[in-house]
Design a protein that fits this description.
This protein has a domain of 75 residues: 10 Kd Chaperonin, Protein Cpn10, Chain O (Roll), CATH 2.30.33. A six-stranded antiparallel sheet has the order 6-7-3-4-5-8. The chain contains two helices and eight strands, in the order E-E-E-E-H-E-E-E-E-H. It is extended and about 70 Å long. The protein has 137 residues and is mainly beta. Helix content is 11%, strand content 30%.
Length: 137
Amino acid sequence: MDAEPVKAGSVQRRQQSRTIVNEFVEPLGRRILIRKDESRQKTRGGIVLPDKAEIPTITGRIVEVSAQIERDEDFPVRKYDKVLFHPKNAIPVDFEPDNVLFVVPIEDVVAVFRKVQEPKSAVERAEGNNAGEETDG
């Protein structure tokens, strides 16, 4: 018997009848489900932050996108994107023990982190071509 893959933002629970039930959170409307990144206790410069440090925005990974947002071309967010969001209207989801899931209105997502591969420069291309053109002397 093959086990089905578990969706992100889902939990497997065993019932008394020994069957496995998969539960997952699906955001509705103009909302997305975000798994909050672990909070930093120390800045890159080495400054230790107090436990109650107020940070107005939080980063996290998108776990699920509502069908409405998925179809909307005005919001170029996809599952697994890293985003910066304002936590004021974020609704915590009591689904995991450490409570790191939040349902967030798309309007509260203020940035999406993107990685772009730089095309090779003309110098790098020339160096790559010259490496294969060794002459016998």
